[in-house]
Amino acid sequence: MANDGNWPPPRDRRGMRMGYTTGSNAAGAAKAATLALLTGHWPEQVRVSLPDGKTTLMPPLERNLTDSTAFCCMRKDGGDDPDVTHGALICAQVRRTDTPGLVLEGGKGVGRVTLPGLGLEVGTAAINPVPRRQITANVADALAAALPHDPDYLARHGLEVVISVPEGERIAPKTLNPRLGIIGGISILGTSGRVSPYSTAAWRASVVQAVEMAAYHHVDRVVLATGSRSERYAMQLFPDLPEVAFVEMSIFTGAALKTCVVQGVRSVVLVAMISRIVKTAQGRMVTHVAGNPVDLAFLAQVCREAGAAAELVAAVAAANTARHALELCQQHGDLSLAHRLVALALAQVERLVRQSGGGPVLELEVVLVDFDGGVLARQRSISGDKR
User: Fold this and answer.
1) How many helices and strands, by DSSP H and E, does the chain display?
2) What residues does each domain of the chain span?
3) How many C-beta atoms lie closer than 10 Å to residue 177's C-beta?
């Protein structure tokens, strides 16, 4: 088993190594600490039960044991999935209490919920329902292993489990937690307990949760932006909307749109820059740059179909990037490519919404902004009726 000094290994962007969620690490830390508190010695490793029915082995780190408390951490291994919590310590303190039963709480670096609509009570720790059950189940496993002849231990004695993330406050701004009204740290997440390489499961889940939050607050429209800069420009375009209406969906165009349909959102605006508009126009609804480059031949073809001069079409075909192609169009004083791309992107968005069961009252709009926030092209439809 690797030690704290070299575990976890760095993420290999080309690799396929499985990782584990913050929920699984919290459950492992809680199980190890419970075993130590009840037996008086630390296990070298613990078998952690995962929500998907599988198990994994984890080694406890930074261990500390007294008569009344046990504290340890697991180092989060996100595998080869891009994850801002990769390498973070996920810790648990288990303490004896006078009140019978098991209490689960969040400590330093675990966010607190300040807004409704997340499936968690306002004021509670941001430990999602599945990880809560996972942590509780693993503590129960530890009790059964340490006290096999005392199945009613918690009927007479109490245990308090406090999950903490020492670097949680530093990591949190890199997540959607501030936008969701979760302050002071990260969330403890995970539905399967595992993180598949490049699945970006937690990332996608946070985008879905942001759309659900907007729908819960009955905003007039949800504005989906593909990045922090396009989101900032979107806020300038729609200054009357509350902050919760804006969702930085990143690469998850399809997931965000499908969630809008499921949540009954009536009006959706997609605000993006040129490369994401190009990919959306092609129907690519997961738009990660890795393995998903802009198709310049497609751009040149759209430019030709838009009626651009042959000279511009040739220049676009030889462009280095989508941004370069846009700059060439601007230099030629011809934005027909931009308008055509927006129309194609809108058609793809409409198609996805229809396939997802979107009703006829759903209003859709696509806005292409430049790198300074200026609107280059925009188009809106209701049930395919262009306006």
Assistant:
1) 13, 19
2) 19-195, 201-386
3) 23
What number of residues does the chain have?
Answer: 387
Half-sphere exposure of 197 (CA within 13 A, CB side): 10
Structural fold of domain 19-195: CbiD-like (3.30.2110)
| Residue 30: C-alpha distances to residues 18, 26, 36, 58, 113 (Å) | 22, 6, 10, 11, 22
267 by DSSP, 3-state: which?
Answer: strand
Half-sphere exposure of 260 (CA within 13 A, CB side): 34
On the 0-12 / 13-18 / 19+ scale of CB atoms within 10 A, 313 is buried
CA distance 311 to 293: 24
| Dihedral sign, Cα of residue 10, residue 11, residue 15, residue 21 | positive
Residue 15 φ/ψ, nearest 5 degrees: -90, 180
Q: Which helix (DSSP H) or strand (DSSP E) does residue 202 occupy?
A: helix 201-216
Query: Are 188 and 127 contacting, i.e. CB atoms less than 8 angstroms apart?
Result: yes
Give this prediction's pTM: 0.68
**pLDDT, tens only, 182-233:** 999 999 998 888 886 655 666 788 889 899 999 999 998 999 998 888 999 9
The closest of 242, 213, 322 to 275, measured between CA atoms, is 322
The count of other CB atoms within 10 Å of the CB of residue 57 is 11
CB 259 within 8 A of CB 353: no
Distance in angstroms (rounded) separating the CA atoms of residues 7 and 13: 17
